[in-house]
Design goal:
- β6 and β7 form a beta hairpin.
- This protein has 2 domains: 127 residues, Diaminopimelate Epimerase, Chain A, domain 1 (Roll), CATH 3.10.310.10; 121 residues, Diaminopimelate Epimerase, Chain A, domain 1.
- The strands form 3 sheets. Strands 3, 6, 7, 8, 9, 10, 11, 12, 13, 14, 15, 16 and 17 form a 13-stranded mixed sheet that branches. A 3-stranded antiparallel sheet has the order 2-1-18.
- The chain contains 5 helices and 18 strands.
């Protein structure tokens, strides 16, 4: 049977600078779309997952930037239900002085994703606070929760953003922790341009450190809304590639609006 070419793109999500943010490969399969909606599936290097924010942003960016859709709203049919991506007039994202602009995008809009809010629950495990502290080799933990998602992830709150930035992961120890992934987060100082810092580790599903994790912020929005008494945030992903996310929690509808930019770095064809 003859192979056929499939168009693909590599997109850096939650950034407007090449080789920052989180890269995602986007493949366009003609049989998975019509004029009104698109099917969307997400895969890590080892498994299919039920929700991926940065890859949804990347897919929407490609559909908007290549003209495959003419409207300002896209509907995706996914394992997490119908998700929408909206093209929103540009509100300049915060510039971070230690993040150089490596050929940044000049698009006049950012993309806002409408995703489900994810609740957090108390940790139901024999792994107590002291055990997790020892496994992670951190001096202090403010809070521990489990994110109510599939696959679930452990949420660790550290005392400050500096603790998040300075954290040195031991992936063998992280694999011993409950949950499919580990989110660490800390509140930013009052003078910061951000509300909180985060990093995400998921070696159990083939991703040691996730550069920018959109789905994690569906739980972080719920957690920090309760702690900070607000519903709008600017979050900084403190991975080596870094990324910026604009967040709004609609508590009544239990939805999270996740906004960011994206830039295409590679495009081509692969035979399948």
């Amino acid at each position: 049977m003859a192979k056929k070419p499939v168009k693909y793109f590599v997109v850096d999500a939650f950034t407007d600078s090449a080789f920052k943010g989180n890269p995602a490969a986007v493949c366009i399969l003609e049989e998975e779309r019509d004029d009104k909606w698109f099917s969307l599936r997400w895969f890590t290097p080892v498994t299919e997952i039920e929700l991926c924010g940065h890859a949804t942003l990347a897919a929407a960016h490609i559909l908007f930037s290549t003209g495959l859709v003419n409207s300002n709203i896209i509907e995706f049919f996914t394992l997490s239900g119908i998700l929408t991506a909206k093209r929103v007039p540009d509100v300049k994202l915060l510039e971070v002085s230690n993040v150089p602009n490596n050929g940044g995008s000049q698009d006049s809009y950012f993309i806002e994703l409408d995703l489900p809010a994810i609740s957090t629950v108390e940790l139901n495990s024999a792994f107590d606070v002291s055990s997790i502290s020892k496994a992670l080799n951190v001096a202090s933990i403010v809070d521990i929760k489990m994110c109510n998602m599939d696959p679930n992830r452990l949420l660790i709150v550290l005392p400050s953003e500096k603790d998040v930035v300075d954290f040195q992961p031991n992936y063998d120890e992280i694999r011993k922790c409950p949950g499919a992934g580990l989110i660490i987060t800390g509140v930013a100082p009052a003078e910061s341009k951000f509300d909180f810092y985060t990093r995400h580790f998921a070696p159990k599903v083939g991703i040691d450190e996730d550069p920018v994790c959109g789905s994690a912020h569906c739980a972080l929005a719920v957690y920090w809304a309760k702690k900070l008494g607000k519903s709008d945030f600017v979050a900084f992903m403190a991975s080596p590639r870094s990324g910026i996310l604009r967040i709004h929690l609609d508590e009544k509808k239990q939805r999270v609006l996740l906004g960011g930019k994206a830039i295409t770095t590679v495009e081509g064809f692969v035979l399948v």
